[in-house]
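Q: What does the assembly look like in three dimensions?
Context provided by user:
Components: two
Sequences:
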Amino acid sequence: MAITLSGDQALPGPPLSSRLTPAQVWGIVLLAPYLLVFLAFVVYPVCYGLWLARAPANYVALYNDPIFARAAVNTLIFLVIGINIKMLIALFLSGFFAVQRPWIKWLSVIFILPWAVPSIPTILSVRFMLNPEWGMVNHFIFSLTGDDGPNWLNDPTVALTMAIAVHIWKSLPFWTLILITGRLAISHDLFEAAEVDGASWWQKFRYITWPSMQTLYVTCTLLSMIWTLGDFNSVYLLTGGGPADLTHVLSTLGIRYLRLDQLSLAMASIVCAMPFVLPLVYFMMKRLSR
Amino acid sequence: MKLPGVKDFSWREVGTEARLLLIGIPVFLWTMIPIYHMFLFAISPKEDAFSGKLWPDHPTLHNFEIVFKQQHYFLRDFYIQFWNSVVIAASVGVLTLFIATAAAFSISRLKVPGGRVVLNLALFTYFIPAAFLAVPMYRTMGNYGLLNNHWSLILAMVTIASPYAIWVLKQASDKLPVELDEAAVMDGATTLQIFRLVYLPLMMPSLVAIGTYAVLLAWNEYLYAFLLLSNDREITLPVALGNFLAADDSPWELLMTTGFIYALPPAAVYYAFRRYMVGGLTAGAVKS
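A: Here is the predicted structure of the complete assembly.
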């Protein structure tokens, strides 16, 4: 069956069959499903989207839309401050979870939960916790101080901070897990030798842990930045972009334009992000396809 | 001379443990509070839930009863939405496995011409933020006439899951010795037989990891689901959860109960396959 099929396909012309072995014909057949998916759902949408965003008027409209400028700034804050804080905590916690204790092993199993459960119910849970009237947080503040707590999600700065906190809550376990793998790969002999030499905690980190982990750490940070650009849920489900559309990031803004039926604006806002995304993607591909 | 030394040592031990606890307790609270809050709402009557208590005066399973009997306006299609989520997640898992395994076999074992290019294109797609692709994808599905059809979400999620799947499976199959294929060819095995009898059994651990990855990705997806499906009887559970917010006086205790039910399967799957997930996924996720 297999031989006849590959034989048939190799038949049409002698040059083709001499160039392609039956195994290579099968290779093309097996690669075809992915190529079809790629052409139909990546190449066509991207080209079509770029076509829609071609008119310079779109970019003028974006430039004049204060929500776009605000979203761009918010995205930068989210990436530059949020991701770096997250990765520093992950680096720190990877050291904590590498300590051999039975209870830390149990804690590491629990610690994965935010990553293992879907984000919609947990983000909505946080959203209610921050409810100014009925939320658990303000009830707690009231019982401690007797004062009403702040209206958390009604202040753009606080709301964006909370969205970043939700993002960190969700994705911290994943990055910690990866950094733990990196940490455990370091030879234990090095630490023992340092111990004998009387190295301090900081010296061990500075001269053993960090040099062997810095490539991994930088890769993780860049990868996390790229993915966070696509983090729609943390902002949309917590603040919905509000108050007054002041907490949008580029991913929620694109969807906002889409829902307002301004597809070309939505595409234009994404095109504007490309000068930042593409170098990062290029750099990551260089790293990963070595 | 000995005694103070021993004492000093044990004090240091206590200090270390205290410092570890000082990190461990906040980590535990930080991780658990949002999840506990969801659970608390699920077992609280409405009055207790809104009163900010840490444990309800009258814990109850009544909310679960309402959900399972579909006794609320927002829940009238609960079972069909749950079923939609199951069907879509399972289809994405099967299709992704099929497409990615075939592609990885083709690129890694058959050394198909141009395989390297396809792999790089896939990797490129993997790095494009999904929310950016969502905008043109929405329009494309409209052009294909697939909006409000489960196929639109299934195909979109397969598109998003495949690149990573191909990449991980390609890495894993590169590690299998070439001699295996050569020996099988000597014995007169056809390409398909090698694929079925040699390749698939050896790749099983990675296939389990990738299948789990694709199923969880589809089950958890919110953005694409809410863009591509809108009919109440076509949507998946996460979209239904989001729709709860449309009302001013949303029944949050029911929302959290439904969310809790929705979160259980992926958590169970994750912990059941944790061995594979940690080995198969983190090793591939970031290769330094």
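Follow-up: The mean pLDDT of chain B is 86.
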